[in-house]
Amino acid sequence: MNVKNRKAEQSAATRSALVDAARSLFGERGFAAVSTEEIVQAAGVTRGALYHHFKDKQDLFTAVVERVEQEILERVAAAALAEPDVWEQQRVAVGAFLDGCLDPAVQRVILTDAPSVLGLAAWREIEARYGLALVRAGLQNVMDAGLIERQPLEPLAHMLLGAMAEGGLLIARSDDPQVARREVGDSLDRILHGLRVA
């Protein structure tokens, strides 16, 4: 392996260590309660390494949000693809997202801190790349299968994602997240069934 490749691997490993450490700390305590010094200590790197890879703590937080969104996307996609039936794929995908909202790190990073730390526009742009893309694909599949009426896809995808995000917030803020998860799941299931062609 040449020196250039080795340096690129070391750089990627350092960046990954920073994101891993920040994900853990932000997930446990939230953005405001974590210092950059704690992050570099947990990652086992220098402060200079942090600022080589990220312009500031918020930039690192953005990378953590992207990481958590990617994890959710992978979990939801895997659950959906395990179902052979197109309609069940959609239902299972919604359920897998709601299950993810039971994770305290997801609650804190995605549902609580991301909108305030990144700002609504930046947070929604990330949501569009991950959650909206998956919702759009799922709805397109059920439309193509003739299970819901053909209609403009974009507004429907935004509305369903909005309902899912609000459901996630209800779960995150509930005194009994398990009960909230069940109730939100039932409500979203009724919404989906309302779209289904008789």
How much of the sequence lies in strands comes to: under 5%
Secondary structural class: mainly alpha
Largest sheet: none
Enumerate how many helices there are, as a single number: 9
Encode the helix/strand succession as letters: HHHHHHHHH
C-alpha Rg (nearest Å): 19 Å
Number of strands: 0
Structure description:
- By secondary structure, this protein is mainly α.
- 82% of the residues lie in helices and 0% in strands.
- The chain has 9 helices and no strands.
- The model has no long low-confidence stretch (mean pLDDT 94).
Protein traits:
single chain; 198 residues; mainly alpha; 9 helices; 82% helix; 0% strand; elongated
Write a brief structural summary.
This protein is mostly helical and 198 residues long.
Layout of helices and strands:
Blueprint: H1 3-29, H2 36-43, H3 47-53, H4 57-81, H5 86-100, H6 104-118, H7 120-144, H8 153-173, H9 177-195
Helix pairs in contact: 1-2, 1-4, 1-6, 4-5, 4-6, 4-7, 5-7, 5-9, 6-7, 6-8, 7-8, 8-9
